[in-house]
Design brief:
Helices cover 0% and strands 55% of the residues. By secondary structure, the chain is an all-beta fold. The protein has a domain at 35-115: Jelly Rolls (Sandwich). Strands 1, 2, 3, 4, 5, 6, 7 and 8 form an eight-stranded antiparallel sheet that branches. The relative contact order is 0.26.
Amino acid sequence: MSQVLTVVRNAAASPLGETAPARLPIGEPIALAATGQAQTDDAVGASVGVWESSPGVFRRHLKNREFSHIVSGWCIFTPDGGEPVELRAGDAVLFPENCEGVWDIREALRKTYVLF
């Protein structure tokens, strides 16, 4: 049986879809985010793609586990009940299941992601 790979290509220059305001903004400015190369692989129960957000502060409210690689920009993510974590281009992060918290995007942030 052959395996089919799910690939995100050239994430730094990947075209993105239309921007939309953050779903759970905190204050001003309201961050705008967009996604590109969004793909779902039902065989492994995962979604992958490229995500970018303009500066702003908003809540993360995803129940999935997420692995992300920061392609450009920087932010501070503060998990509920945890310490702030600074993330910059080149960093990778694993969010555990049900990890909620606050994104503080300081410089337009682009990342690849895998939700599983």
